Amino acid sequence: MKILVTGGAGFIGSHTVDLLLQQGHHVRILDTLTPPVHIAGQVPDYVPRDAEFVLGDVRERAAWERALDGVDAVFHFAAYQDYLTDFSKFFHVNTVGTALLYEIVVEKKLPVQKIVVASSQATYGEGKYECPMDGVQYPPLRPVEQLNRREWEPRCPVCGGALNLLITDETRVNPHNQYAMSKYTQEMLALNFGRRYNIPSVALRYSIVQGPRQSFRNAYSGALRIFATRLLSGHAPICYEDGQQLRDFVSVHDVARANVLVMQDPRADYQVFNVGGGRAISVVEFARLVARRMDVNIAPELPGQFRFGDTRHIVSDVAKLRALGWAPRVAFDESIDEYVAWARSQPDVRDYYVDAEREMKAKGTIRET
Question: Per-residue b/e over 176-187, b at no fewer than 16 CB within 10 Å?
């Protein structure tokens, strides 16, 4: 097959490109190569020469038309992600870019057989909980007044009582921030236009993905890259709130396998799937694990700050994807070791967190209690 991978010079995209080439597919990459993920206009050295490269922006019709020529399937990974307040850019890149993809495929009657769209666990917001009094609940964004009191746990929206965390399946979304909302609109476009125009489409909600090639120049998110680069520079990892937030992390290699699986399996058509690590760990425990794997005796710092719009806990249920034959294989230790080894080999590795923290504080994203 001839397969287009948007964002194919990026983190998840490039690993998916590698797997597709290994399976004998012809791959074309569409990427705009913009900072902070990339050095402007520079194709990373890990992008294989066997892949055709098209420089272009998914917001531009001409770029899509060039990239879609003769294509059988599309992986749409190109996206905008950070914690800043340029709200419109999230929707211009993520939502409008996806709409333009379907618009051109339908308008030109292109013979695209499958589209796989990258979504995010962020669409769940606080995810799924249970109240002993009021049953299953999907709590809203925690009020700033509550966070200022360092009361970190979400409360039952009915009775105000304590909640017990449940793993979150694909049934219900509750996006809280601009990135999450833009990813959910991508899903709606893909699945609804896909059904309407008979273009088999799948949306994948990734948990926190980690592994080599995750650019350390984008220091707004990605616990492993932030913690590892801090420790490589001799600085303590910073954990927001009390560090007890629960997350599930998944290796980029497991994600690439999931991507290719849903492209090939017609049972996945017109559905959304979680892609997660299948194991919960607290943020502070993960920071300590990274330090142990690096053999660095630096404890994480917990200054009591919070990042406005963050989810307290979120752990994805991956049973639906398991039913197609997928399961996470890469353990935390292996994933950490691989990323650290890659980061150490990069000539421009340093602690980019300081600059990101300064900007997030100026924008009101990181707040003091």
Answer: bbbbbbbbbbbb
Q: Is the peptide bond before 36 cis (omega within 30 degrees of 0)?
A: yes
Which domains does the chain show, CATH number per domain? 2-128+167-367 (3.40.50.720)
Q: Three-state SS for 234?
A: coil
Phi, psi of 340 (to 5 degrees): -60, -40
Beta bridge partners of 135: 131
Please report, to the nearest 10 degrees, the dihedral formed by the alpha carbons of residues 45, 51, 56, 62 taken in order: 170
What CA–CA distance (Å, rounded) separates 304 from 245? Answer: 13
For 185, the token pair is: 């609109």
Spatial distance between the Cα atoms of 75 and 68, rounded to a whole number of angstroms: 11
Q: Which tens digit of pLDDT belongs to each residue from 184-239?
A: 999 999 999 999 999 999 999 999 999 999 988 776 678 999 999 999 999 999 99
DSSP 152-178: -S-B-TTT--B-EE--B-SS-----SH
DSSP string, 45-111: TTS-TTSEEEE--TT-HHHHHHHHTT-SEEEE------SSS-HHHHIIIIIIHHHHHHHHHHHTT--
Instruction: State how far Cα 155 lies from the chain centre.
Output: 26
pTM check: above 0.90:
yes
Count of H-run helices and E-run strands, the chain? 12, 16
